[in-house]
User: Which sequence fits this backbone?
């Protein structure tokens, strides 16, 4: 699939997240503490909770409901109660805009 422009990079401040829907897929677009932009599935694998409403710290996104932390680069859960990863999507910044590839990257074993 082709990447989709979801808007200006300036819309997402450091250590914050925003939910977008790309081709029917809910995605949390996150800027980590180093300023890098990431895109991961927006639904916590422990419950039907929007991760974009959670807390960004360093390179993780924490679910506000039960505290599971997900690594932004791999989607892997770092803390319980979640034990399944969330999908990770390719992100590219072009001319100040964020482009997301809606095809999930393969999950490392």
Assistant:
């Amino acid at each position: 699939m082709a990447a989709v422009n979801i808007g200006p990079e300036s819309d997402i401040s450091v250590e914050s997240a925003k939910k977008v829907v790309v081709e029917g897929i809910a995605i949390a677009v996150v800027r980590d503490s180093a300023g890098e932009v990431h895109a991961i599935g927006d639904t916590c694998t422990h419950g039907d909770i929007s991760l974009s409403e959670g807390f960004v710290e360093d390179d993780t996104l924490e679910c506000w409901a039960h505290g599971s932390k997900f690594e932004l680069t791999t989607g892997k859960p770092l803390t319980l109660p979640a034990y399944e990863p969330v999908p990770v999507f390719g992100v590219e910044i072009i001319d100040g805009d964020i482009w997301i590839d809606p095809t999930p990257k393969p999950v490392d074993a």
Notes: The chain has a mean pLDDT of 95. Strands lie at 4-8, 16-22, 25-31, 37-41, 55-57, 60-62, 69-71, 88-94, 97-104. The two ends are 24 Å apart (CA to CA).
